[in-house]
Design a protein that fits this description.
3 strands, 3-stranded antiparallel sheet, mainly alpha, elongated, about 90 residues
């Protein structure tokens, strides 16, 4: 079974999401796909990987990738906060 994760905007939360949630997210990105269209997990992964929306960029396909992405987001938030404090 594939484990897929979503990282919060601030990098503080990593949550595991279901295959159905991933497929629904991919359907939302396909403007011409009907809501009830069947989409395989592999196709959903390809769609999500190829989309630049923030919602899709926070989806990771391994825990290691999710941890790395969360760490980068936290560093980015810290740097942004430090700039705003000056």
């Amino acid at each position: 079974m594939t484990k897929i994760y979503r990282v919060s905007d601030d990098g503080q939360l990593i949550e595991r999401i279901t295959t159905e949630e991933v497929q629904e997210l991919a359907r939302e990105q396909l403007s011409n796909a009907p809501r009830n269209a069947e989409i395989s997990l592999e196709e959903a992964k390809r769609v999500i990987a190829g989309v630049d929306s923030d919602e899709c960029q926070h989806v990771c396909f391994s825990f290691v990738e999710a941890m790395s992405f969360a760490k980068a987001l936290r560093k980015k938030c810290i740097a942004r906060d430090a700039e705003q404090a000056v």
